[in-house]
Structure formats: structure tokens, C-alpha cells
Amino acid sequence: MKILRASGQKQMPWKNGGGVTIEIAIHPADATVDNFDWRISTATVAQDGAFSVFPDIERTLAVLEGNGIILSVDGVETTLTQVSEPYSFAADAQTSAHLIDGTITDLNIMTRRGAYTHEVKRIVLDNQTAHLNFEEQSFLFVVSGTIKIQHLEGEEILLAKDCASFSAAQKGSVAISGEAVAYLITLKRN
Length: 190
Fold this sequence. Notes:
RmlC_Cupin_sf; mainly beta; HutD family protein; 16 strands; single chain; 6-stranded antiparallel sheet
């Protein structure tokens, strides 16, 4: 397990220059926003407008902070809020967003078609313990609160915006506990 602390995540402009994104993890490590196999990031959306186009990419979006957005993908509108399930769509579709009431922050997971697929699951812990099973490379991203991860070597504490990375070679399970909202991201190589 590797811990990706919020303080070490890379801030950069959006591909279309319309805002700021924070890169949590990318593969390969030296990839850019034009040639990655997969990428996990957050973004702040402060105004209505078009999303960046990523050819041959599948994308999942979840609202982390703010009152939500109305996402239009090829003319079909979907309302996303902090309690909505993660929403998946083609990143090369014509996509734009209308803010419901002010700035939002979202989580973006993107994978290249033919190379990887991904699944994203929202987890809410209310002072309880849960067990996560890992068969593939996975990430646990904390939105808010604190999560304690117990594993064979001891334990780790994750705070808001921290992320734990589990390699595919670490198949097994870990116990997580605390009071928090998080997302479990699973990447599968095709």
C-alpha cells in the first residue's frame, strides 16, 4: 500500500485551460493528459462551460463539494450532487456543465479504451468497520472525515483528500474504519 497525501498531489491547468485540476495518480508515471492509460484527479468547476475532450477515454465523475451540476453529455442532461452515484460517460462526447448554485469540486477517473476499464463506488462510514477486497489495482480516496486502514504491517490514517493505492499484487483485504465519505476506484487491465 502506498499513501498519496493531499499535500503531494500535482496542481495543473485543465486540458482546455478553463480551470484547475489536481492530479492524484496517473499511469504511466511520465504520461501527460494526452497519452495516459489511466488518470485519477479532482477539479474545481467555478463556471458553466464545456468539458475538455479526451479522445478514446471513458470517464467517471462524482461531485465532492458544492451544490452540484447539471451535466449535458451529447445533449442528455443528468443532475449530479454529492450524494449521487458516480456517473460514467465517454470523455470524447460533447460534454458541458451548468452549476446548480456555485462552485463545485469533482472527482474524475479516466481510462483509455482497450487498455483499462474502471469501477467507482461511493463508501460512507458512520463510525463502523468495513472490509475492502482487492483483486485489481485499487485506490481509496477520502472526500471528508478520517479513515483508519488496518493491514498486515500495521495501520495508516487517511485524512480528507488523501488517497491509498493498492497494487494488483496485493490481492486480499483490508479493514477500514472511521467516520468518512470516500470512493473506492478499481482499475482493470484489458
